[in-house]
Automatic annotation (TrEMBL):
Taxonomic superkingdom: Bacteria
Protein name: DUF4181 domain-containing protein
Lineage of source species: Bacteria, Bacillati, Bacillota, Bacilli, Bacillales
Residue ranges crossing the lipid bilayer per the database entry: 6-23, 39-56, 68-84, 96-113
One Pfam family it belongs to: DUF4181
InterPro entries, sorted: DUF4181
Keywords: Membrane, Transmembrane, Transmembrane helix
Amino acid sequence: MGISISSLVFILAIVRMLLKLWFVKGEKIKISETSGKRFYTWGGWILCLISLVILFNLDFSDMNIMRWFWLCFLIIASSFNAFAEWKYIRESKEHIISLVSLMIGTAYILLFMF
């Protein structure tokens, strides 16, 4: 499963890069440059902390539990990212990239890890 997760991270990084070239035109705006910087930073840290606590309390030898963890983590993290981008930098269409990468990541997990 370790190869599957690393492949997923690599695939999503390339997909996000290509989609940014295709969708995002003009000046690139970051959430950290808007009023949503605090919301995005705190939300990211809270999600990271909760996922680490859950991850270290799971049984690493049970592959079914780990598959569900990674699926839920991808859905929650990508959804939070898409929501923050939609709320604070709607005009840049970054939220569409997050939603497309969420769909690709979910399909990858369901096809190759289950």
